[in-house]
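quick q for whoever's on today - can somebody do inverse folding on this one?? i tried earlier but teh output was garbage lol. C-alpha cells:
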C-alpha cells in the first residue's frame, strides 16, 4: 500500500457492492447498539473497521465510541476538525494513548476512507506489553507500543456520537462498520480494505458486530446487524441513504 508522508494515502474511487449507508448531519444523528448479544468480548484486544466520508465539517466528529463496563475505560475514533486528523484514543480514565493521521477537510469530504484500528495488551512474565495501530486505506499510518491495560466487557457502542455525552456528532457517511474481538493482522486489514472495494465480511473470524446498513427496513428505526450475534442497532434521527461514490 502506498503511503506518502503523514497526510496522504492513495485513495482510489470506492466500489460498493451494498446499497445503503448511515448519514449523519452533526445535529443529533447517530446509531447505537441497544441489544448486546456479545458474550466473549474484552477490552484488552480488538479491532474496529469502518468506511467514512465527511459532509461539511465545522467541529469534531465521532466515528465510533466503545465504553467498557469498567469505569473510565473506553476506545474511540473521531475526526479532529481543528487538526484535520483522524484520531484514535484508548483511555483508562487516568492514562490515555492517542494516535493521529492527517486527512484534510477537503479530502475527507471528497472521498471515502477506510479506517481500521487494532489494539492488544498482554501480561508476559509479569510485565505488560501491548500496541495499538491506526490504519488508513489498508496502510499502517501510526503505531504505539504503550502497554495500556483496559478491563471489563462492552457496555456501550455508539456510532456517530460520543457515548457518554450528547455531543461530538459525526457529519457525513459511515458504512460497513465492523467490530472484532482480537487484533486483526496487517494482512487481514489490507484484505478488508481490498483496494477500495468493500466486500462482505460476515465470514471473517472473531466478528462480533457488523453493520452494513443494508439490514434496515424502511418502516423501522432498528436493524439486526449482520454478525452471528444479531445485535440490535437503533438509528436516532440519522438517515439511511444510498451509498454514493
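ok took a stab at it. sequence:
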Amino acid at each position: 500500500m502506498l503511503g506518502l508522508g503523514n497526510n496522504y494515502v492513495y485513495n482510489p474511487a470506492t466500489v460498493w457492492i451494498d446499497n445503503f449507508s448511515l448519514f449523519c448531519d452533526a445535529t443529533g444523528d447517530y446509531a447505537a447498539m441497544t441489544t448486546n448479544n456479545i458474550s466473549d468480548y474484552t477490552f484488552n484486544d480488538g479491532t474496529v473497521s469502518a468506511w467514512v466520508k465527511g459532509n461539511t465539517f465545522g467541529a469534531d466528529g465521532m466515528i465510533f465510541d466503545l465504553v467498557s463496563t469498567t469505569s473510565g475505560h473506553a476506545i474511540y475514533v473521531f475526526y479532529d476538525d481543528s487538526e484535520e486528523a483522524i484520531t484514535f484514543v484508548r483511555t483508562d480514565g487516568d492514562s490515555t494513548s492517542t494516535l493521529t493521521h492527517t486527512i484534510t477537510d477537503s479530502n475527507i469530504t471528497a472521498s471515502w476512507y477506510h479506517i481500521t484500528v487494532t489494539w492488544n495488551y498482554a501480561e508476559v512474565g509479569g510485565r505488560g506489553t501491548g500496541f495499538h495501530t491506526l490504519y488508513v486505506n489498508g496502510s499502517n499510518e501510526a503505531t504505539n507500543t504503550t502497554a495500556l491495560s483496559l478491563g471489563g466487557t462492552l457496555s456501550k457502542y455508539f456510532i456517530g456520537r460520543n457515548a457518554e455525552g450528547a455531543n461530538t456528532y459525526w457529519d457525513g457517511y459511515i458504512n460497513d462498520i465492523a467490530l472484532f474481538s482480537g487484533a486483526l493482522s496487517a494482512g487481514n486489514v489490507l484484505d478488508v480494505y481490498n483496494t477500495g472495494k468493500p466486500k462482505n465480511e460476515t465470514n471473517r473470524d472473531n466478528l462480533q458486530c457488523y453493520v452494513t446498513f443494508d439490514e434496515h427496513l424502511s418502516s423501522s428505526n432498528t436493524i439486526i446487524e449482520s454478525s452471528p450475534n444479531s445485535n440490535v442497532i437503533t438509528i436516532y434521527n440519522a438517515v439511511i441513504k444510498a451509498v454514493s461514490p
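fwiw DSSP finds two helices and 18 strands in the chain. also Confidence is low (pLDDT under 50) at residues 1-10. so keep that in mind when u check it
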